[in-house]
Each structure stands twice: as C-alpha cells, then as structure tokens.
Amino acid sequence: MAKRYTVGIIGLGFGRAHIPAFLASGCEVVAVCQRNLETAKSVAARSRLTSGAIDDGARAQEVLDAVLASVARGGWVTCDGAA
Asked: Distance of alpha carbon 50 from its chain centroid, rounded?
C-alpha cells in the first residue's frame, strides 16, 4: 500500500486551488492556514476537510501535524535555516 502523505496548506488565495490536487493524489490535507481565520474555516468547510484551520503562518510549523507544506503566497518567501 502506498504511503499517504499529510499536507498543510498555507495561504488560501492560490493555495485553495491546491486542495483538490492533493486530495486527488491521495494526500490528506490536515490543516489550512490563512491570516483571516474565518476565511480558513470557510475554505476548510467548502472543501469538506475535517482538518483544522489556523490564522498564524509563523506558528504553522509547530501547529501543523503534516509531512508536507504547501506555501502559496505572492512575493518572496524566506525560510530560516534554508541552505
């Protein structure tokens, strides 16, 4: 049986389009993050996710129990400790 990956999606402007693709490929979306919590909850509900919705991208790593993260935001994204 193939491993089922867990995914957290950060940024729901473009990121909401990633949800069906991850689900179709057999991944489990465990949380969505958007700076507006009501938007995050709404997207999670419309996508029929039983996952959590959070509004603090800076805390996403400690909050999300995910193997993969989809960071979908405009502009440059920097990661501490990136090689």
From this structure: 13
Please state, in angstroms and rounded to a whole number, the distance separating the CA atoms of residues 80 and 31. 22
Q: Identify whether the C-beta of residue 55 lies closer than 8 Å to the C-beta of residue 33.
A: yes
Which tokens in the block code for residue 9? 């999606």
Residue 37 identity:
L
In tens, the pLDDT along 49-64 reads 877 888 887 677 666 6
pTM attached to this predicted model = 0.75
Backbone angles phi, psi at 72, to 5 degrees: -115, 90
Is residue 30 within 8 Å of 64, Cβ to Cβ? Answer: yes
Cα–Cα–Cα angle for 14, 78, 58, nearest 5°?
A: 75
In this structure, the number of other CB atoms found within 10 A of the CB of residue 82 comes to 6
The Cα 47–Cα 44 span in angstroms is: 5
